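Minutes, project huddle
Topic: does the predicted pose make sense with 2-deoxy-2-fluoro-alpha-D-galactopyranose bound?
PN asked that the exact inputs be recorded in the minutes so nobody has to dig through chat later. Recorded below.
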Amino acid sequence: MKEKILEEFRRRFDTSPELYASSGRINLIGEHTDYNEGYVFPGAIDKVIMAAIAPNGSDMVRVYSMDIGEYAEFGLREEDAPEQSWARYIFGVCREILKRGGEVKGFDAVFAGNVPLGAGLSSSAALESCFAFALDDMFNCNRIGKLTLARIGQSTEHNYCGVKCGIMDQFASIMGKKGKLIRLDCRSMDYEYFPFAPEEYELLLVDSKVKHELADSPYNKRRESCERVANKLGLPSLREATKEMLDRIRDDISAEDYSRAKFVIEEKERVLAVSDALLARDYETVGRKMYETHDGLSKDYEVSCEELDFLNDLARENRVTGSRIMGGGFGGCTINLIKKDQTEAFIAKVKEKFAERYGHEPAFYPVVISDGARRV
Ligand code: GAF
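Predicted holo structure (tokens), as shared on screen:
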């Protein structure tokens, strides 16, 4: 990928670029808890967005996306927003750096990636984090600070892409470390790296190929439900909410909001249970919690779809240790904790059964936990 990007850069521009990359992410458990100030458990993966970037001495940004095969250019003022949705991520990152008093000057860039699009692996966070990290390195002598870089990506989603996301994806993409998952407290932003390399088990993603686009999905509506319930409870977020508190206001809120909040309250507890189980190397418990999360996401939070529920059923039938929808939902991947000696047979079975029902095979990605944003 590196050579391909550099070659394209040389063809288009006559300067010497620096290369940067940032990663997609997985999340072991803790879904839709980030914007409720709960805990999440993500890690960066070995699928990246990579960009060659060089200052161009003007106040214009000129970018070529190799995967989309499109060129965009824009100025750095608010009113210069580009039309292409992919370019708005880069524009947003520039604007958010400038808003915080950072420096961004004109630059040329060519980028490409291997994070599958719309699969719930956060290709957009990888893109934002790659450019946020690069522009900090190039124009701000790395003064911005990693947490702020993650916030810059998150604000880009909020202000330029229409997704009111939490901080998990950008945090994982920026902070990821090889071989380590991160348990992040999304209220205090305290985090801890957990080594994850069980001898007997591995993580496998199964991509339903149902494309998910959070901007067009009811993702923001889920967030609104949670905020309504927190408001009713007189709390800043669902972080402090308990099942008892929720039951006390049950008659004052809609059945839908009740179910959404119930899921979040239960999910918060599951992340903590999984942390303890991981420390005790109790992978059976980790797996059981993943299935519980799937059920909650499917029935209470209602962010699953037929194909993902089918993949989850196949995992149960084949005695996979843990399996669940991963990420925002409405399509994309399941994440599976599976015994290494079962993986091959499980893949063969899923290919057959899924194709029989939906006419195409899913894709399979073994998870390799890797470093996050970096200069290459
Ligand atoms: C998406 C969002 F971007 C994250 O912030 C998070 O809410 C996730 O969905 C669900 O856990 O990836």
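Observations noted during the meeting:
- Residues 139 and 330 are 38 Å apart (CA to CA).
- The domain at 2-196 is CATH 3.30.230.10 (Ribosomal Protein S5; domain 2).
No decisions taken; revisit at the next huddle.
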